[in-house]
Amino acid sequence: MSARSRPADVSGALDDTDRALINVLQGDFPLSRHPFADVGARLGLEEADVLARLRRLLDARVLTRFGPMFQIERIGGAFCLAAMRIPEERFGQVAERVNEFAEVAHNYRRDHALNMWFVLATERPEGVADCARRIEAATGLPVFLFPKEREYFVEMKLEA
Amino acid sequence: MMSTGADELDRRIVVATQGGLPLVSDPWGAVAAELGISADELVGRVESMLERGVIRRIGAVPNHYAIGYTANGMSVWDVADETVDAVGEWLGALPAVTHCYRRPRRLPDWTYNLFAMVHGRSREAVRDQLEEIAARLEARFPGACRARDVLFSSAILKKTGLRIGAAA
Description:
The complex is a heterodimer.
Chain A: H1 16-25, H2 35-43, H3 47-59, E1 63-70, E2 78-84, H4 91-99, E3 104-110, E4 116-122, H5 126-139, E5 144-146, E6 150-154
Antiparallel strand pairs in A: 2-4, 2-5, 3-4
Chain B: H1 5-17, H2 27-35, H3 39-51, E1 55-62, E2 71-79, H4 84-92, E3 97-102, E4 114-120, H5 123-140, E5 145-159
Antiparallel strand pairs in B: 2-4, 2-5, 3-4
Helix pairs in contact in B: 2-3
């Protein structure tokens, strides 16, 4: 999948076991010595099958990541939503420049005058404004910051 | 801050696992070996990071398009300041909403102060859901919501997650 193509819906290529595995792996991953074997036991799968399926789902980008999800704020870092208004003819070039910043954790094109929305993840709170300034310098376009003032709910699970 | 003492181990665990857990039989043992600590010490610390909310959860992050959620709608709402927290709690509790945050307005360009993410299998499905939510919101909090919009994503440009540096 090229970075700017519209992602395909490949859900038809997943079998029921893949879906069950994705759903289980969005829950609590065991902290045991053989967690993939433990996950497999819940689904009637061998450890090797769990690992092989997981590798395939990651390679196919059905899963973008497998591991701990951090709230970096809790150890002194910061996440911040940001948006830019990018002239259509420059969109691809600006997207490349923005994505080069390691602080850009994820980035979406959205249908709006503010057409690029991304999340900055930095090790220190002041890193957000600093990174925004560097992106502005690199692109010549303003970056609007939308820091989280309050979180009401976050549930990062989607039934596959 | 992340520079000294006990917090340094948290930080080293973040750096070692932010790209993902190793896909091996004993991933915690493998990470512990890389960090030069025992598996028990690592697991104890990961448990503590879960309790403190440094780790939200451990597991798989699906590409929502790839599992059939092709419509990713960021719904945004302009809600009176005195009511926004009550509305936010209410919106966040709805089953359709996966994330809900209050954020600052950027006047005059951006009047919305409440963000709620809704995933669905089509844009029409998400729009229908938001119509219904808006109607219920108006019934529950009359006049509180002055304007709303929904921004659909048309491409994932990047989705790597957190990447903090390896150097202290």
